[in-house]
Fold these 3 entries.
Entry 1:
Amino acid sequence: MTPFGERIRAIRRQRGIMQRDMARALGVSPAYLSALEHGRRGAVSWAMVQKIIGFFNVIWDEAEELQRLALQSDPRVTIDTAGLSPKATELANLLADRIADLPEERIAQMMELIGNPSDR
């Protein structure tokens, strides 16, 4: 699951909205919405993020949060280390190889170490 998928699923459930009803309103299939919520789709388009924001009728901070989460929720990340140091390339490859085995606590520690983009 991606941060964006997790959040839209939580909002949908909190409001008692059925997935098929939300999908119909957005003009997508229930299968697409399910895949989006579970992180089995690539990065969500800006237009789809705007449709979701409009569907939930959220404004200001909540809308900005959904936009931020969408930007950080591509489940198929590519890291281009061309022009970086050999250590940077090694780190990217180690992370790609081992991320599935990292416990949530370690992931949280690593995120704090490198800084959360929302803190900038």
Note: The chain has a mean pLDDT of 92.
Entry 2:
Amino acid sequence: MTTKKYRAAVIGTGRIGMLLESDPKRIKPATHFGLWSSHPRTELVAVCDNDQKKFKIAKTMKLDVQTYTDPEELLKEIKPDIVSISTWKDTHYQMMKLALRHKVPAIVLEKPIAEKLEHAREIVEEAKRNGTHLFINHRRRFDPLVYEMVDEINKGIIGEILQASIFYVFGLITTGTHLIDVLRLFLGEIKWVAAFPNIKEHFAPTDDPCVDAFIGFESGIKASFQSLDMKDYDIFQIDFYGRKGKISFKNIGRDFEIIRPKISPEHTGFIELNDDEIECRGGAPRNQFMFLGDNVIDCLEGRATSLSTGEDSLRALEILLAMQKSVELGNKVVFV
């Protein structure tokens, strides 16, 4: 059995790149830095950031890590097997092009894949030509419980799915990309969207306000897609309504709750959802970063393919940009 250790580097040492590793409440590893420095099959060799103050933090976490302010210099000198790109979304295209030019075998990219569709398509096509293993960090793709529940729903645990409702915060592209990706995983391909601006005061990136929408799937299922204010509370929740009950994917993705029907105690001949007996799955955070790391190693060694592909992220971006277009067109239906 091989014991090779793969050399890894992180470009971008902000929150998800490195800083959240110090959050005492988060399961570890909580960042790309934490993942590659703790995974038994990888060695974190170098980090890159344009803010040299972060290098002091990096050195306290891993004394021998090499530091760079120029990503091209890092790629030339280190020649990593794996690189995580955890920079701001407006640099994703540039950083991906750089990593692809240097033929990095495995690239883990924070979402979204790019800001423009043409850039996203170019990245996907070039990665495919290079034979590069590309992983977009849509984190629910790296949660084994999600796959268990997808299988349960497909087997009919709550019967035929009729409708879904979604709530999110903090930006259509920023957070919506996670939701669209996981919706496709559960419910299949999306056919059309009709979107509306959230005119209520809400906290979001200045270039990425929240949008509300209706989403139509090829199966005929429809979903409402609604935004709230992160300054009030955080929420990432999907409710699936089937003929035999309801499943809530809630608590920022930690928990699944299954609610089945019961005979109404109040109205003869009626059936209600039984909130008194809720079956819970999950209940605690799962080690999604380590699951991602395992997938990367399995791909490098020919045992697997990416669980969160560039094609998946490209499709999510197409759908989100269609929502923005629908808003611009006065809330008209846009087919995707």
Note: The chain has nine helices and 15 strands.
Entry 3:
Amino acid sequence: MIYIIYIPFFSAVFTSLQVACKTLSNLVRRSSLSGLTGLEDGGGSINVQGEEQKKLDVISNDVLKNALKWSGQLTTLASEEEDKPVDIMGDSVYSSEILVENTGRYVAVFDPLDGSSNVDAGIPVGTIFGIFDQAECSIEDIEDLSDVSQMEEKCLQDTLQPGNNLVAAGYCLYSSATSFVFTLGAGVYGFTLDENIGEFILTHSDMKIPPRGKIYSFNEANRWDWDRPLQQYVTDIQQGLVRLKGLRRLEG
């Protein structure tokens, strides 16, 4: 079970993330049986990355967004599946796209189901998230709370913060097991969902990337967009000039 003891106000956020990830894990595992594979009826809409949305993309986005909203700790959410960030506020004085509440502190950015095209083939997919502490722009900075354009600008400022402003980040991987991995800035910890009790159990403490890997993975189509030193390094690996023990090449 996950306990966030030393940062009490984070408990609600991570409780919401756990609930969402458990729900998504079940949806992914049962997608072939419940008719959730493939595109939406009539063809999938296009997300901000120019990708056609799958049925599970839309459902996963709603699950994660609603879970985080009800944590009571978020001011702004930004999802890969939505064109604009959404301000979380209690009294719905704006359009249906913008909900208003002044109680939140954090900003969440996420991809609710990364690699959703893999679901149809039974290949692992996952949820990716990052949490910023404090919004760049507060409600008090908005002169006219009925001005939707000002609210949208505030939301955008909240989410376009540098990575070193993150106070938490992680992912949930849905595969042979459901793994929840995150950091609060002091070490990386991995939890595995125990299906028998319905809780995440600590299974990987103080996770680290090994100093030397055995696998390299890249999208060959992007090769010519890299800077010259990186192109040369990968070329050297392929030509055997850089030795990686047990080398395997994965493309994605």
Note: Helices lie at 10-29, 31-34, 55-69, 148-159, 228-238.
